[in-house]
Amino acid sequence: NEVEASFKGRPVLAKQKGFAFFHPFTYVISQVVSDIPVLFVQVTLFAVVLYFMTGLVTSAGAFFTYFAIVFAVTMCVNAL
Q: Residues with Cβ < 8 Å from 8, sequence gap 6 or more?
């Protein structure tokens, strides 16, 4: 669904680039920045449930390391 919406918006982006309204880089950066809060909430819910449901080490350091890795992987996969 989002891929379809992304392709539908590209002719508008090309037209605005042609008129020198804004650079496509700013469009990409705005998409990434606007995705961060949504991904943060999703990863938080997923990580908390999965971490404690599987019985991993119950220490703050271990949890936040796990959380950071899951968040980084999610951001990378989202960028693909």
A: none
Report, as an integer, the average pLDDT of 60-69.
96
**Percentages (nearest 5) of helix, strand, coil residues in the chain:** 85, 0, 15
At 75, which amino acid appears?
A: M
Q: Which residues contact 13 (CB under 8 A, 6 or more apart)?
A: 24, 27
pTM score, two decimals? 0.70
pLDDT(51) > 80? yes
CB-based contacts of 62: which residues, under 8 Å, 6+ apart? 56
| DSSP secondary structure letter of residue 80 | -
For 73, phi then psi, to 5°, come to: -65, -40
